[in-house]
Amino acid sequence: MTVQIFGSRKSPAVRKAQRFFAERRISVHFVDFAERGMAKGELARFTQKFGVQALVDRQGKRFAELGLSAAVLSDARWEEKLLDEPLLLVQPLVRHQHQLAVGDAEPTWKGWVEAAP
Description:
Layout (H helix, E strand, L loop, with lengths): L1 E6 L4 H12 L3 E6 L7 H11 L1 H4 L5 H5 L9 H10 L8 E4 L2 E4 L3 H10 L2
Parallel strand pairs: 1-2
Antiparallel strand pairs: 1-3, 3-4
């Protein structure tokens, strides 16, 4: 079993996800937003399942820094913004094969682990 985690090393939720999978000896491929953002296709997977609005971290530091609290943007414009500013995304974004999870989704992760052969 291998999972892919997208996020920032500074995020407590990302560190929790990494620790969760490491404790269960599950291989993790980590994509650090400080080094690079998400690929457009990868972001599209998450937006198709959860919607763009569910991926925007409105409580995050970067959201406040950019002054987006009064912003009224279309979903397409939000997608562009998320590609340019990956720290606006809810973290962590976790993918196992075709299964996706957003944020601290430990019950979902446990389901993946239990279902793994």
